[in-house]
Amino acid sequence: MTLGGCTSPSLQAESNGETNNAGGSEGAPSQTPHSSKPSESTSNPTATPKDAAQQLKASAQPTVEPKPTPSASADFGGVAYEASGKELPQVARSGKAVKAADRLSPKMGSESEADYSDGVNIRVADGGKGTVKSEGSGFFTGAGYRVFEITLDNNSTSALDLNSVVVTLLLGDDKQIAMPLYGEIEAYDFAGSLDSGDHTSSKYAFIIPSPEDDLSLNVDLDKVHAPATFSVKSVKK
User: What's the pLDDT score for residue 55?
Assistant: First the structure.
């Protein structure tokens, strides 16, 4: 039985303005009652109490926006450490200490090469210069730098511990230590071990002042070998 199509005769009569007639036909089409228009509210809005909290108004936008004042670029001279006097401090290494007099002294065959009596050889080559372009923490953008390629030949009977190698660039007559540069170029410290009869190379980069001071490169291999110091010629732009 379908209920959706049935409409009460009394509702039909009311919608048509007629009196109720119980004898209406069952097949008459149903009609939807007219919806009445909702009555408009005549109530007045509630007044705000006198003791209500005061409503805050948004502050007006400033007519002139403040502009940050750029800070001056850092005046960096390339110095990482100022040694007391003109002597470098001795590198602290693990194990039993060796007296300076007992260390093997280098024989400087030329301005770029040093030999030790046990067969170890150090060679230094100029790797060029440039200007730091990287930005961010740890970089001195705009500073000049020098690159050096160091080659080690181990013709001794023992392996060399490359983790003990310390390379420093000394600035001027005061022998101030230049700051090393990483990330700008492919420059890495020596690492690992160099077996007897093998050789290896690595590049080192350092921040330098402008104009360049007299430079010297100090290569300290380990406790057995005394440091070798190489004079570095200035490179014109």
Answer: 60
Main-chain dihedrals φ then ψ at residue 109, nearest 5 degrees: -70, -30
Q: Give residue 224's pLDDT.
A: 94
Which of 216, 221, 190 lies closest to 203 in space, CA to CA? 190
In our burial notation (b when 16+ CB lie closer than 10 A, e otherwise), range 149-173 reads ebebbbebeeebbbebbebbbbbee
pTM, rounded to two decimals = 0.62
- 192 is written with which tokens? 């690992």
Q: What share of the chain is helix, strand, coil (3-state, %, to 5)?
A: 5, 30, 65
pLDDT band at 214 (very low <50, low <70, confident <90, very high): confident
149 sits in which H/E element: strand 144-154
Count of Cβ atoms closer than 10 Å to residue 132 Cβ: 19
Burial of 148 (0-12, 13-18, 19+ CB in 10 A): buried
Report which of 124, 216, 223 is spatially closest to residue 164, judged by C-alpha positions: 223
